[in-house]
Design goal:
The chain is built from two helices and ten strands; from the N terminus they run αββββββββββα. It is of the alpha+beta class. The protein has one domain: Immunoglobulins (Immunoglobulin-like, Sandwich), CATH 2.60.40. The strands form two sheets. It has a six-stranded mixed sheet with strand order 2-9-8-4-6-10, with no helix packed on it. Strands 1-3-7-5 form a four-stranded antiparallel sheet, with no helix packed on it. The longest helix is centred in the C-terminal third of the chain and has 20 residues. The chain is elongated, with a radius of gyration of 25 Å. The relative contact order is 0.23.
Length: 192
């Protein structure tokens, strides 16, 4: 047995006894969205979120979609299950009718940090106004809506400068483990 074997066992012991960070999870469904939208109208669809270990603010944005969308922020608490969020898209009269594809983004902020982010593929069929038949139905594809278990608060001001509630995270065990590992490495290096 070499002189390094006890040292390696000691390092493995230290690393294996360090506490693991808590994994925060956010679930969003359905996995993709598709809806029809009149050029000068609006249409809504519902998505659901579950938050496990995440308390803070859910920021909703978009990528490559030239439409205004509401809401932009939602408060969430740990343990929210199947909370409905009604996303409303507004038409854009400066665009040509057609199919626009992009993503709706959901970013969870907790304690001033990004906890997790999710992107959902989105396809919007932008339709012209039809003078002949003004009662054209606007269809929406969505999955069955489960019963909501909690209330949510909507904020539609995307430029709000309020800071999310901060949570204290105790890094002491990690710092102590890193300090002990560094000390052991220094001692081992000097004895070599």
């Amino acid at each position: 047995m070499s002189k390094r074997t006890p040292f390696l066992f000691f390092i493995i012991l230290i690393v294996s006894t360090m506490p693991l960070p808590q994994v925060d999870a956010l679930g969003i469904g359905p996995s993709s969205l598709e809806l029809d939208l009149l050029i000068d109208g609006s249409n809504s669809t519902t998505v659901y979120f579950n938050s496990d270990g995440v308390t803070g603010e859910l920021i909703i944005g978009k990528e490559d979609l030239p439409f205004r969308m509401e809401p932009s922020r939602i408060n969430m608490t740990s343990g929210d299950v199947s909370v409905p969020v009604e996303l409303t898209f507004y038409g854009n009269e400066t665009l040509e009718p057609g199919v626009y594809e992009g993503k709706v983004t959901f970013i969870a902020y907790s304690g001033g940090f990004v906890a997790v982010g999710i992107k959902i593929r989105t396809k919007i069929n932008l339709l012209e106004l039809q003078e002949e038949n003004p009662e054209t139905p606007i269809k929406e594809e969505s999955e069955e809506e489960p019963e909501p278990n909690s209330q949510i608060t909507f904020e539609t001001d995307p430029e709000s400068e309020e800071e999310p509630e901060s949570q204290e995270i105790d890094y002491t065990p990690y710092l102590m483990g890193a300090a002990v590992a560094a000390l052991v490495l220094v001692v081992w290096w000097k004895r070599r």
